[in-house]
């Protein structure tokens, strides 16, 4: 019988088959482990985006919540729910960074917003570029997450309704007759208001006689809670008004506005003019006749 020539390759295959099976299984295990590891990797943008939005939420609650709400309606400024879908993102960042500059440059959108909200300009909050980016990232988050409607998400803080106030107590707080509980400076040091004394108060800040009319009740209540204006932040940031003090001041501003009293600047002018007339005319009334007699004698002596 002729000798078979294919025996040796077949033997080799029988010998190598177990090793090939082990190698294939090992490769399969490695491939499966690699796929599982890739599936468990976090998305590269998810963590930084979440952290940025969290930073923006902290900035919003510290700097913005006194004038704006998210889904709670207009306050001093507009409701910011969905603002990133209504407004160009680049414009929004530029406006948040330097609103005073945008208004000074007569940006048409900024000027229109100013008119819509009673010519109360948004102050420059002194935010950095990174702060603005974080704030916009927070405003871009879904409104459900901002309001805690998604499980595990804390609700965004909103302005609280104030308890009833007493305008007479508010007047004492304004003038400093009753000190603020946490040591803040009396309002009268910088602001004037009708009905708080002859001189009415300071002139460093605007007259507050009709501030209730300008801001509206909800807007003014919100502003008193945070006092977001840069000139007031240094004074009240660590010495905020209590809710009761806010309520008393709100009652004072509402009462003064209802009385339709002239602002203190005019009162001060009339008082000053009256004082000048009195000082100029008093010597004439008291010594006019006496001086007239002296003049007659002097004139007669010359003759």
UniProtKB/TrEMBL annotation:
SUPFAM superfamilies: Cytochrome c
PROSITE patterns, alphabetized: CYTC
Keywords on record: Heme, Iron, Membrane, Metal-binding, Transmembrane, Transmembrane helix
Pfam families referenced in this protein's UniProt entry, alphabetically: Cytochrom_C
Gene Ontology molecular function: electron transfer activity; heme binding; metal ion binding
Domain of life of the organism encoding this protein: Bacteria
Record bears the keyword Transmembrane helix: yes
Gene3D superfamilies, alphabetized: Cytochrome c-like domain
Positions of the Cytochrome c domain: 51-143, 165-257
Membrane-spanning segments: 20-39, 265-287
Protein name in the entry: Cytochrome c
């Amino acid at each position: 019988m002729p000798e078979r020539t294919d025996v040796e390759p077949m033997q080799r295959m029988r010998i190598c088959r177990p090793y090939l099976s082990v190698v294939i299984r090992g490769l399969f295990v490695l491939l499966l482990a690699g796929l599982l590891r890739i599936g468990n990797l976090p998305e590269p943008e998810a963590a930084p985006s979440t952290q940025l939005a969290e930073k923006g939420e902290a900035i919003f609650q510290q700097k913005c919540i006194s004038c704006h709400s998210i889904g709670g309606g207009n306050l001093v400024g507009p409701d910011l729910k969905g603002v990133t879908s209504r407004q160009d993102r680049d414009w929004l960042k530029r406006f948040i960074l330097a609103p005073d500059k945008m208004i000074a440059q007569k940006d048409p959108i900024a000027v229109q917003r100013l008119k819509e909200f009673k010519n109360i300009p948004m102050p420059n909050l002194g935010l950095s570029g990174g702060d603005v980016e974080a704030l916009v990232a927070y405003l871009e988050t879904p409104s459900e997450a901002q309001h805690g409607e998604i499980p595990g998400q804390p609700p965004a803080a909103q302005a609280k309704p104030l308890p009833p106030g007493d305008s007479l107590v508010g007047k004492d707080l304004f003038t400093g007759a009753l000190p603020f509980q946490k040591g803040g400076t009396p309002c009268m040091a910088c602001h004037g208001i009708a009905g708080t004394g002859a001189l009415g108060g300071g002139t460093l800040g605007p007259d507050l006689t009709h501030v209730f009319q300008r801001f509206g009740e909800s807007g003014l209540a919100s502003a008193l809670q945070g006092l977001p204006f840069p000139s007031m932040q240094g004074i009240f940031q660590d010495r905020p008004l209590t809710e009761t003090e806010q309520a008393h001041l709100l009652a004072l501003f509402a009462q003064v506005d209802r009385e339709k009293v002239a602002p203190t600047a005019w009162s001060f002018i009339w008082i000053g003019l009256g004082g000048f007339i009195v000082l100029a005319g008093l010597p004439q009334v008291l010594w006019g006749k006496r001086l007239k007699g002296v003049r007659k004698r002097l004139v007669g002596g010359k003759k």
